[in-house]
Each structure stands twice: as structure tokens, then as C-alpha cells.
Design a protein that fits this description.
The complex is a heterodimer of chains A (278) and B (345). Chain A has 278 residues and is of the alpha/beta class. Chain A is built from six helices and 16 strands. Chain A is globular, with a radius of gyration of 19 Å. In chain B, 34% of the residues lie in helices and 21% in strands. In chain B, a hairpin with a 5-residue loop joins β2 and β3. The N and C termini of chain B lie far apart (47 Å). Classes of the chains: A alpha/beta (278), B alpha+beta (345).
């Protein structure tokens, strides 16, 4: 077999420096990154990157920062397997390989001027934070903003400082519920769907953006539809196993779609009849 | 460009020697009573001109089972993109396998293009060999309409009693034929014979499934989420043989390999199978195709539904390999016939 080298392929890694890290919980770590050549990652909220640890492997990770803030991008990674464990061992100053951004760039103009409901289950807040911060940085261009967050326990709530900002200063309604409270918890207890009936919406001008564990979608969508929100106003970010990120390897297929190319963000009307989506 | 030539049968060996003087040669070789494989050829006598579809299709040359994508050094953090290729002539590619390669082409040429595949493909020369009758009872090339070669080859051989009629598909094919100086220009009587053969083939190859070509996709759509699949895949062992031997299955895994010095390594792509249990399992533990049955339905959808929507092609070439190789003896023909009985179109 002959070999030749090429400058660029779909698998090209772009080196990035880690400029800040912190643990958000025992097994969830935050990384702030900057490309070593100083360029910005050209992304839209909802997109993801492939993070590469040469010798161990590559994993798809959603981008948690907003493209409105330049000079860096942020990832929040849960320790789940070999690659993510290795990524957790990295410190400020270390280098890492990035591919991306991957996935569909959804036209943000569709939600401009609209009321927004963000529904996040557990780690779903990580990719939604990209949308939320984008909206907050362009706060004048959007209507009412409501954030609903559901977590298993109060300890699992991420971005607690930022949530305080969202709640107190930024003209955002924030509601949180936990499955299991501890003695200090003063908020709601129950599933995330329990938060939806009590919110006030103008269905015509409201978009809902949903991200959470796979089991959550069916119930949240039902509750949102009951509120009168239209099918094409419900935006969902779906999770699938991914290997190549360029629509070839077959792992992330959802019926007719490749999650890595056609998603991971979909409008509900696009996938409601897809037998594998929800 | 002259497109049709004739090669006397006793000159075939000279032609193959000529090919060997230009590039490496791979052709079907008999491996067992009913098993054949494409192999590199040194001894021309070993080539089996008449063969049952090889165990693995020629996709193994287009998309190797193991292939390096990136080489890296952990210390210097330097990464190099690699394309592995070889100048190779494939001789004796069956009519159905030509379609298989075209299916792979459709996938790999779509943006973002797979440069590794496309570069490798350009180094391969394809000399096809037309099937004049069925290979065995597993083939479904009648309904898939893949028994008449239309494209996908540089040179096509069609066999007659004492000679081969040759059709030139590309300029590369034309160059080979001209340089070899072994071929005569085809005459009217040869074309008449070809027309007769093709007509005879229309009589031999008939739909093997009780549905029309156009109905196959509809059959999948209707059957998809219903009980029509009941019982069909109960005996499936999820071994992944059907996807390995399929000429249009291209799913792969990407893994890193590191040398014993723990410094140099490479990122490899290897064949994967949607039939493996963990294929669609995510880090959180959720498995989107946990049941064997669902994985098989998915395989059928990937042959008869999704690619039709996306590429306007069925990704089944009718080669019959999945049925021939299945250790649980699940037959594509029987499955489709059972579905067409159960589903009203």
C-alpha cells in the first residue's frame, strides 16, 4: 500500500490552547479554549465540535459559549469514558485537537423578535447556554425569555453563578425543579414537565428550545403542544453516538437524517414522523 | 473513440500478462467448494473466470477494512493526514458489484467529500465481466435490475463462445486496450450477438420478489413501524456478517492506535456494523437500537428506503451475499416476499 500526505481532509485537527478550566461538579469540568493561531471558531448556537486526544480517540462535544463573545469558546465535559477521562486530566496551557464546528447552522433569524422558552434537562443546559447567552447578548432583539431547568438533585445544577445573573439582572424568568431535594433546597420538586403548565405564553410568537436526556423529549413536547405552541416553533437538540462528524460513518443516523450533519438541532415538525427520532 | 472490440479467448492470458506489466492485478480465486475471493494475482492460472459472488465484494479495495487517516506524534503534537492507495487493476468484477461501487461513490462524493476514498478510487482500474446467467438461487439482480451493466467500469468483458466482446467505458480503458495491441475492432455480427444475448438475459433474469422495483421503497415505508416484521429476525444473531459482505455497507468506526514507544500512533478507520449492539449507544447509556430486530429493520431501511430518498438509488445490488453468508439462514428474498404478503401496497 502506498501512502501520500495531504494538507487537509475532513479529519484535520486544529490545535487549541486551554486557557481556563474548573470543575463544575465531581465529574463535570469546564474548559475555555482558544485556537493557537488566534482565529475564532465560526459557529452558531446548537453546533458541536469533535475533541481529539491523539492516541485515545475523539468525542463530540456541544459548544457551550455564544459566538457573540470572541477570542475563545467553551466546552463543558462530563467524564463518561476513556477519552473524556483523558480530557479531564488536561490543565490550563495544555493543547488539544479540535474539528469543527459540526452540524447544521440553524437560521437564528427565525427566532428573532420572538418570545423564547428554554427547556433544559440536566446536562441539556450545556448546549442551551450557547443559545441563552446569545439571546442575552442581543437582549433587545428578543421578547420574553423563560428558562426552565430540571435536574436530578440540587448539586447537579450547573452554572449556579450565571443562573443568579440570569435570574436577578437580565430580564429573564428562571424556574428550576429537582427530582430529589435536599434539606437546603427551597425550590420546586418534580419533573421538568411540571413547570410548563403554569407559564404564560402567546403561542403565536413563542419558540421553545429543548435539550435534555432522550427520555425527556416526548413529555416536554406534549406539554408544549398543550400550551398551544406550534410544531414548527419547537426546536430540539438530539444526542446520538458519533464517530466521523461528517455524515459518513453511520453511527448517528436518525431515520433519513444524519444527526451530525442534518442536526443535532431539529425543528419538531421535521422529525415528528421519523420513526427513530423521539 | 472506438468503443467496441473483440478479444479472442486464447489471447486472454496475454491480455492479463499485459495488465500485470502495468500494475498489480486482483481477480477472483477459488477458495473452497462454493467460496471465491478477490486476491492479488501472481499466477494467472489461479483466476476463476466463472465464480459465485466473492465472499467480500470489491469494496475492500475502495474502502479497506483498516485504513490510516492521520499519523501523529504525541510529544511534538504534529499530525499528518495520510491517504493510502495502490495502483491496482481489478479483473472480473461482476455486473452487480459495479452497482455496489457506484452506491459507495454516491455517498463518498457528497459534501463533505471523503478525500481518502475518492483518491484511492482514482487509482483503481475496473475490468468488469458480465454475468450471462444467474450465479445461484440467492441472487436478486432480476428485481434490482442490475444484471445489465450500464457503467462503473473502464473495460467490460462480455463472454461468447470463442471470444469476448469488449466495451470501453473510459479513456483509461481505451488506452489499455490500444496499448495491448491484442484486440480487433468489433463488427456487425458481434453487435448482433450482443443484442441477442441481452434479449436472452431479459428472459432469464426475472423479478425474484413478489413486488415491482418501484414498490420496494413503498414496501419498506409501510412495513417500517408495523408488526409486519414479526418473527422474521427472531433467529438473527447480530453477528454483522450481512453488513460486512454487503457491497454497499460502508459504516465505519474510528480508533486510535499507538506504537509501543507510546509516542507515534495513527488514527484508523475500520469497518463497523449497525448490527453490533453498541453501534447506536451514547455515553449516557441510552441505546437507540437496543433490540436486534430494530437493527435488522434499520439495515433494510438503509437498503430500500433512506438511500432512495437521498441518492435516488436502491442500495441493494441483488448480489445475494447477505443471504448466502447469513449463519442463521435469513434470506433477503424470503424476507421481502413475506413482507409483500403481509403489507397491502
Amino acid at each position: 500500500m502506498n501512502k501520500k500526505t495531504i494538507k487537509h481532509s475532513s479529519y484535520t485537527l486544529k490545535p487549541a490552547h486551554i486557557i481556563e478550566t474548573k470543575y463544575l461538579t465531581d465529574d463535570i469540568k469546564y474548559f475555555k479554549l482558544r485556537f493557537t493561531d488566534g482565529t475564532d471558531l465560526d459557529y452558531t448556537p446548537g453546533q458541536f465540535v469533535m475533541v481529539s486526544m491523539c492516541g485515545v480517540g475523539e468525542v463530540p462535544i456541544s459548544i457551550s459559549s455564544t459566538p457573540t463573545r470572541k477570542g475563545f469558546f467553551e466546552l463543558v465535559i462530563r467524564k463518561a469514558g476513556k477519552v473524556t477521562s483523558d480530557i479531564h486530566s488536561l490543565k490550563t496551557g495544555d493543547k488539544i485537537g479540535i474539528r469543527g464546528p459540526m452540524g447544521r447552522k440553524i437560521p437564528l433569524s427565525t427566532i428573532e423578535g420572538k418570545d423564547l422558552i428554554f427547556v433544559a434537562g440536566g446536562l441539556g443546559i450545556v448546549p442551551l447556554r450557547s443559545f441563552i447567552d446569545f439571546v442575552l447578548d442581543n437582549r433587545r432583539d428578543f421578547g420574553k425569555v423563560e428558562i426552565l431547568l430540571g435536574c436530578k438533585t440540587p448539586e447537579e445544577i450547573l452554572f449556579k453563578d450565571e443562573i443568579k445573573d440570569w435570574e436577578e439582572t437580565l430580564n429573564v424568568e428562571f424556574n428550576c425543579t429537582v427530582d430529589k431535594a435536599d434539606p437546603k433546597w427551597k425550590g420546586n420538586v418534580g419533573l421538568i414537565t411540571s413547570l410548563i403548565p403554569s407559564i404564560f405564553v402567546y403561542p403565536e410568537r413563542t419558540y421553545a428550545i429543548v435539550c435534555g436526556p432522550p427520555i425527556m423529549y416526548k413529555f416536554v413536547i406534549k406539554a408544549l403542544l398543550e400550551k398551544g405552541i406550534k410544531e414548527d416553533h419547537i426546536i430540539l437538540s438530539l444526542e446520538r453516538h458519533m464517530k466521523c462528524g461528517v455524515g459518513k460513518c453511520g453511527h448517528c443516523q436518525i431515520g433519513n437524517y444524519y444527526c451530525c450533519q442534518d442536526g443535532p438541532v431539529f425543528f419538531y415538525h421535521e422529525i415528528k414522523n421519523n420513526w427513530e427520532a423521539l | 473513440m472506438q468503443r467496441y472490440y473483440v478479444l479472442n479467448k486464447n489471447k486472454l492470458i496475454n491480455f492479463l500478462s499485459f495488465i500485470q506489466s502495468r500494475s498489480k492485478l486482483a481477480a477472483p480465486v477459488k477458495k473452497g467448494e462454493k467460496s471465491y475471493a478477490f486476491e492479488y494475482i501472481t499466477d494467472l492460472e489461479k483466476i476463476a473466470l466463472h465464480y459465485l459472488p466473492t465472499i467480500l465484494p470489491v469494496k475492500k479495495y475502495f474502502l479497506p477494512q483498516r485504513e490510516t487517516l492521520i499519523e501523529f506524534n504525541k510529544k511534538t503534537r504534529k499530525t499528518t493526514h495520510v491517504i493510502e492507495f495502490e495502483e491496482l487493476t481489478l479483473f472480473g468484477v461482476h455486473t452487480c458489484d459495479l452497482v455496489g461501487m457506484q452506491c459507495l461513490n454516491a455517498v463518498m462524493v457528497e459534501d463533505p467529500k471523503d478525500i481518502n476514498y475518492l483518491e484511492r478510487k482514482n487509482k483503481l482500474t475496473v475490468i468488469a465481466f458480465e454475468c450471462n446467467s444467474y450465479c445461484d438461487e440467492h441472487a436478486t439482480c432480476g428485481i434490482m435490475r442490475t444484471f445489465i451493466p450500464s457503467s462503473g467500469y473502464d473495460i467490460l468483458f462480455t463472454e461468447f463462445d470463442t471470444y469476448f466482446l469488449i466495451h470501453i467505458g473510459t479513456t483509461k480503458g481505451s488506452e489499455i486496450v490500444n496499448e495491448s495491441r491484442l484486440f480487433d475492432v468489433a463488427q456487425k455480427e458481434h453487435f448482433d450477438e450482443l443484442n441477442k444475448l441481452r434479449k436472452r438475459k431479459e428472459e432469464i433474469f426475472k423479478p425474484e420478489i413478489n413486488a415491482s422495483y418501484d414498490e420496494l421503497k413503498k414496501l419498506m415505508e409501510r412495513a417500517c413501524c408495523t408488526g409486519a416484521w414479526e418473527g422474521i429476525f427472531d433467529k438473527c444473531l447480530s453477528c454483522g456478517t450481512c453488513t460486512n459482505v454487503c457491497p454497499t455497507c460502508y459504516c465505519f468506526d474510528i480508533n486510535d492506535d499507538i506504537d509501543l514507544n507510546l509516542l507515534n500512533g495513527c488514527r484508523m478507520r475500520t469497518w463497523d456494523s449497525c448490527q453490533n449492539e453498541g453501534f447506536a449507544k451514547v455515553a449516557g447509556g441510552e441505546n437507540f437500537r437496543e433490540e436486534r430486530k430494530n437493527r435488522q429493520v434499520h439495515r433494510y431501511m438503509r437498503k430500500f428506503k433512506y438511500p432512495v430518498d437521498k441518492y435516488n438509488m436502491y442500495f441493494c445490488t441483488g448480489c445475494g451475499r447477505c443471504s448466502r453468508a447469513c449463519v442463521a439462514k435469513i434470506s433477503l428474498k424470503e424476507t421481502m416476499n413475506l413482507l409483500s404478503e403481509r403489507i397491502k401496497l
